[in-house]
Structures are given as structure tokens and as C-alpha cells.
Amino acid sequence: MNIQIHPTANFTLSSRNPRIFFLPQFPPNPQKIPKHTYTTKPLFKTLIKCSQTSDSDPPKWEKLLPKNIISADKILRSIAGATSSPICQFISSPTTFLHSVDPRIKLAWLLVLVVIPARTHIYMRFGLITFLASLSVWILPRQVWVDQLGRTTLLSGILFLMVGLGADSVPMVVQSRTPPPSMMGLPNIPPSFDGYSYLLFKLGPLQLTRKGLSLASTTACLTFSIFQSASLCLTTTTPEQLAFALQWFMKPLAYVGVPVAEVILTLLLSLRFINLVFDEVRIVALGIVSRRINWKHLATMETVDVFFTYIRRIFKNIFNHAEQITQAMTVRGFRGDSSSHKIYFSSSSSAPIPNMVSLVTLVGLIGAAALSEYILI
């Protein structure tokens, strides 16, 4: 087909869209108008038009999102900035009341503080938490108890919320084995007394019941008491004193074949070795932070590779320390038999008055826990 174009037509070529548009100009005489005129139509239509410039503001919802909450730099700085006195390190000064208590009494306290939270009323549990927190503030230095109490309280609070809101949030599918009272011709069960409510709090699918509150308080109090009582015991007692106290309690078990000497030696080495692990974790993190790595210019896999290098360096240093400890024990005459190897425990520094006060307080706590089951109902 031959396309004829009127000689008076104008041609315009667009640089952005290389298509030819025909703009016909008809003469004033209608007789000279051609019979057929042809115009081209674009084959494609633009349905969506968008433009983005560097000066455009982000959406409003994007401004509300939190940014840089968890980053590699913050994690390493928090590890490197941790206190130099971990939970298991002995603090010799300032000398406090607990430093003069016999280590055997401290171990008895640790056992009681594990049993009491599971057997007492909820008010007694919170009173025990308050007692341990106050004792930590009084005994430990400020830079130590601020760090330890903060982390222990945060962990216990998270456990309290998770256990309390998740205990009865999902209803159990229970099928009764007996028919309802109406089918048996019996009256319905009367409602409970006024003022009692099993459900204490409800927020959507989450609910806090009396069962959840009891279970959450037990879990949180047990976690707090274990961590904080262990912190108080380890920061005021040397590893040798703890090994001596544990050996005194385990002596009767040696007659039934329990390897008491190996257990005591393992405990002594563990208490010495944990300090080295904590120091290596903190020192290696401090070395990475001091290099001032620009984490924004690193890809995700490069950041992961830095963390793997960090963990690999920690294990390498720990194994080096373990080898040095082994060599030191071999030089000192250890040949693998714990019973024939002599362990020199440090002399006991207990005083009679602190021991009596600790025993009286321990007996009073046990009596208060026993009475709480009958009084606090």
C-alpha cells in the first residue's frame, strides 16, 4: 500500500520519542482536500509515570521506623565496655561483712535461695528479690552492682513477661469425661464468690491469669536469686575457699566411690579459667573497636566474616591458655591422679560474729518461708 502525504504537512521529530507526527494543514478550498488522509498512532501507551529526584523527602512512615538499633559496632562496644569484674571474679577490697563469713555457710545460703522461691508465696518472692538487691548494693562496689543488677533485672523481667503472658494465652483443648449437669438432671455449678477473678489482665490474645502470675513470679525470682546470690558468693569468696567448703560437704560421698578429689580439682580449675575466658572476650572486642572499622562500607557477608574472625580468635586464645595451664600443672608434679596430688587451700578468714549473724538470719528466712504458706493465702 502506497501512503501519500499531503505536500503541506509538517513533520516534527521528537528526540525523546523517535516517532513522526503528522500535523496536516488544510487549505481554505475544500475541493483540494485529498480524499484520504493517513495518520500514525503510537503502538504503546504509557500507563504509569514516575519520577524520583535526590531531593525528594522519604515517606512519613519511613521516618517513624527506628534505625540502627542493633549494629555490629554497638555490640562490640558493649562487650568491650563491660566491667572488668565479671560475675565470678573475687574482689578482695573493700573488705565487707560477707568476706568474713565461713564459705560453708555461704554454700548453705546458696542451697536455701534455690529452694525458697519455688516453695513460698508471691509476696515472699518479691521480698527475697528486694533483700538480694539491697545486699548487692551494700556489699559490691558501685561499678560492679550497677552492671550486674541491670543485666540480671532485664533478664528476669523478660522471663516474667514471656512466662506470665504465655502460660494461659493459648487455651487447651479439653474434653470433659462426664456429661453436663443439665443432661443428668442436676443443678448447674454455682458461680464463685464475688471479688475473685481467675483472669487478671487481658490484651488481645495475651492474658495474665493467676496461674501465669504464679509461674512467672517463680521463674523470675528463681533466675534473679540464682544469678545474684552466685555473684555475691563468688565476689566475696576465693576459689580455694569454695573448693574447701565443697570438699567438706562431699567427704562422706568418698566412702561410696565418688571421686571427690577430681571434682574439687575440676571446680578449682574452672573458677580460675572462667576469668581468663571473660578477659579474652573483652580484650579481643576492644582490639576490633580500636581499629575504627567503618561498618557502613562493609557488606553483610564482610560483617559476618569479621564476627567469625572474632570468635575464632577467642577460641584460639582460650586453647593457648589451656595449654599453658596444663604445662604449669605438669611442672608442679601433677601426673593425672587427683587423689595423690596435694592441693593447698587458703586459710579460712571467717569470724565468729558474722558466722552467728548469718546462721540466725538463715534460720529466720527458712522459718518465714515456712510460715508464709499458712499465713499468706
TrEMBL record:
<feature type="transmembrane region" description="Helical">
    <location>
        <begin position="122"/>
        <end position="141"/>
    </location>
</feature>
<keyword id="KW-0812">Transmembrane</keyword>
<keyword id="KW-1133">Transmembrane helix</keyword>
<dbReference type="InterPro" id="IPR003339">
    <property type="entry name" value="ABC/ECF_trnsptr_transmembrane"/>
</dbReference>
<keyword id="KW-0472">Membrane</keyword>
<feature type="transmembrane region" description="Helical">
    <location>
        <begin position="153"/>
        <end position="174"/>
    </location>
</feature>
<protein>
    <submittedName>
        <fullName>ABC/ECF transporter, transmembrane component</fullName>
    </submittedName>
</protein>
<feature type="transmembrane region" description="Helical">
    <location>
        <begin position="253"/>
        <end position="274"/>
    </location>
</feature>
<dbReference type="GO" id="GO:0005886">
    <property type="term" value="C:plasma membrane"/>
</dbReference>
<dbReference type="Pfam" id="PF02361">
    <property type="entry name" value="CbiQ"/>
</dbReference>
